Amino acid sequence: GSTGGTVTPGVVSLNQIQLVSNVTPMLINANFAVQHQFTNSTSAEIGYAGKWGRHLANFNQINLCAVSVGQPCQNDPVSGQPIRIYSNFGPIFAQTTDANNDYASFYGRFDRKFSNGLAFSANYTWSQNFSTGFDSVSNDIFQGGTYIQGLSDLRLLQRKRSLLDVPHKLVAYGTYDLPFGRGKRYVGSSSRGMDA
Hints:
Helices cover 5% and strands 46% of the residues. It is mainly beta. Strands 3, 4, 5, 6, 7, 8 and 9 form a seven-stranded mixed beta sheet that branches. It has a two-stranded antiparallel ribbon with strand order 1-2. The protein is elongated, with a radius of gyration of 28 Å.
């Protein structure tokens, strides 16, 4: 609201403020795999894939109510707005770089080629994806937890499963080469344009 060209204290909000304490994010990747070909048509692979992120982007509300975390905001008796640390503003949302992420996975893959152009592949991945910051709190909220109160909310420091965590993934699929085109069973003497 406004009165005589002035803005009522506590109603102006700022969004995506960059903090001077932000640093450049860092990502580290590691992969290791062993593959074995049993026959000309059968092979298998097992491996490990990991990714570690430090100083990742986060999004926090930094103009908290001037009360302990979990306590309700007190309203200013004059403006009727919540009493915050920076009383002339409403919520201030800041981009920070204080989140971390740890991902690790083990996987196995099996490939088999059959006669007549038929092939089959299957792979399974077991993984864990942990994070701190708003990502882990989002997972907590998704499972029924309360919304974050601000930067002093201790859940921001806790390492929890990421909202993107998918512990088990199984993919199986097959392919089949149509028997049409050069060198195939049907129309084998055709031009390249007929290749299936």
